[in-house]
Design goal:
The chain has 13 helices and 17 strands. It is an alpha/beta fold. The structure holds zinc ion (ZN). Zinc ion (ZN) binds next to loops.
Length: about 425
């Protein structure tokens, strides 16, 4: 055998319960061989050995579950998850937003999320944070960045710094974002919570959306569109957007009406759907927590009731999409609204509530989310040649999704993440209201 190249470090990770993200349940292999940042072998622990002449560190997680690090396809690292609007958040100086983003990046990673796709930061805050992480000055998950979302004038998230009009400016903005190092293009195809926008109306015209997707695809960049109304979904699907975010079926008057034809078109075109259910549920949780120590108030009760009914409709609509065969992935939308980073598991839980099987729910936050954001060549599954982004859990998530909270260790690119005190995750987790 040829003499070993110097410098390689080997690790052997042992577990009697390895979930590779590909099979529907634990696989037969019980050992993973890692060389530096990569998985170089999977198999039986009697056979898995480093090359002759090399040592390997042994990590014995025999009694634990080992699975791919989670991939969260939708984050907002600038946010606090304390209920404040984006319009308020954006008033903070970039320096403060970068610091908060760095804190959020640690929270994601400590919770077992080893890859994120960022959906809406201000200016270059996340592009700069990623540089700092890649230099090794900060720790955080692997990041796929949009730079900034592209919006119309006054449109949703226009305050983040990229508003355009017409095809020429739309194309120019894609080129600008690509130049700055963006990995994909986020579009706000309808209004949203942004005060000057209307969530029930389309933002861009079809020709503008087409200009954005064509230009992005030319550079081999994926696209994703925020859509909180049916008209916005329709235009985005016609413009060949790769992922529909929120996917809310609402008429311009605010009425909920699921559109089977558009849903079928989404399925036929293979568009990914990022439902973001928990960001809505977390609003309900916040309302409930607010009501606990307050005297009963009719208005609060009515608002809560309305929000619960809305949530049920979102769940029903997603269930219909799942029945049609839609490709549904986990993207938490944290820290937006009341939903804080580090709590991705709650979105997985909501997708299961809407009808995904346990296996599909787990894949929605590993393999499928990795495919949907174009990083499946390196992450999302445990297989030879992949990056060693590995989550070690004290209990099996196939028994209960809640076991995704039982984090024992997180490996990022083959190295164990220093998560500080072991109770750090209990401080990150948002606890639901008791009633
Ligand atoms: Zn979002």
């Amino acid at each position: 055998m040829a003499k070993l190249e110097t410098g390689s470090k080997f690790k052997i990770i042992l577990s009697n319960n390895i979930i590779d993200g590909i099979s529907d349940g634990p696989i037969k292999s019980d050992a993973i061989l890692v060389e530096d940042s990569k998985i170089v072998g999977l198999g039986n622990r009697d056979e898995i050995k480093p090359p002759i002449g090399a040592d390997a560190e042994i990590y014995d997680f025999s009694d634990s579950t080992v699975m791919p690090g989670m991939v969260d396809a939708h984050t907002h690292h600038n946010g606090f998850g304390d209920g404040r609007l984006g319009d308020e958040l954006v008033k903070l100086p970039d320096e403060m937003l970068v610091l908060n983003s760095a804190r959020n990046a640690r929270k994601s990673l400590f919770s077992g999320v080893t890859t994120i796709r960022e959906n809406g930061p201000k200016n270059k805050t996340m592009l700069e944070l990623r540089k700092s992480i890649l230099r090794g000055d900060q720790i955080g998950p692997r990041m796929m960045l949009c730079g900034r979302p592209i919006s119309i004038i006054g449109g949703h998230m226009s305050y983040f710094g990229s508003q355009v009009t017409g095809e020429v400016q739309s194309r120019a903005m894609v080129r600008q974002l690509v130049k700055e190092g963006s990995d994909y293009i986020k579009i706000t195809a309808t209004g949203g919570s942004t005060i000057t926008s209307d969530p029930l109306r389309p933002a861009f015209n079809l020709n503008e959306l087409k200009a954005i997707t064509e230009e992005a695809h030319k550079f081999n960049k994926l696209t994703a569109a925020h859509c909180t109304s049916t008209a916005g979904i329709k235009l985005s699907v016609e413009a060949n957007v790769d992922m529909i975010i929120h996917s809310v079926f609402k008429d311009p008057n605010g009425e909920n009406r699921f559109d089977n034809k558009i849903a079928e078109l989404m399925v036929d075109k293979g568009v990914y759907i990022n439902p973001t259910l928990h960001v809505f549920r977390s609003q309900i949780w916040a309302m409930q927590k607010n009501m606990i120590d307050k005297p009963e108030n009719k208005q609060d009760i009515l608002a809560l009731d309305k929000a619960k009914k809305e949530f049920d409709i979102r769940v029903e609509d997603l269930n219909k999409l799942i029945d049609l065969g839609a490709k549904v992935i986990t993207g938490s939308d944290s820290s937006w609204g009341d939903y804080q980073l580090g709590n991705t598991v709650y979105e997985v839980e909501c997708l299961e509530l809407a009808g995904l099987s346990r296996s599909k729910s787990l894949k929605s936050v590993t393999k499928e989310s990795a495919v949907s954001i174009g990083v499946d060549e390196s992450v999302g599954t445990l297989a030879k040649g992949k990056d060693a982004d590995i989550l070690v859990l004290g209990k099996n998530p196939y028994d209960h999704l809640d076991n995704l909270w039982k984090v024992r260790d997180v490996f990022l690119r083959g190295s164990i993440v220093d998560r500080g005190s072991t109770d750090s995750l209990s401080r990150i987790r948002q606890i639901p209201p008791r009633n």
